[in-house]
Amino acid sequence: MKYGIFSGSYLKEDATWLESVEGLDAACDRMKKIANEHPGKYFIFSSDKRKAVGSIDTTDQSPSITKESGEPQGSPNSENP
Q: CB 3.0 to 4.6 Å from 14: which of 8, 10, 46, 81, for a disulfide?
């Protein structure tokens, strides 16, 4: 299944489509790469579920990745218990 990667905030007018990627894991990896190269807000959209299924905000250079569960998945600068 393909997932769309967008810059901006989900359900906001600033959302801009960047590209589509096959598979959720690949989409997450690609979104992280884009966010590290160009800090800002990004999200992954599932047209099948008709909602965002992942997001990242690297605006402050401390990435926080959130998947569909809504719980942070950690960041490169934090420790997971």
A: 8
Count of the separate structural domains present in the chain: 1
Q: Where are the alpha helices (DSSP H) in 1-81?
A: 24-37
Question: d(Cα 26, Cα 28) in Å, to the nearest integer?
Answer: 5
Residue 66 clears pLDDT 80, i.e. is over it: no
> Structural domain of residue 11, as residue ranges?
2-67
Distance CA 61, CA 4 (A): 23
- State the average pLDDT for the chain: 84
* Residue 6 pLDDT greater than 60, yes or no: yes
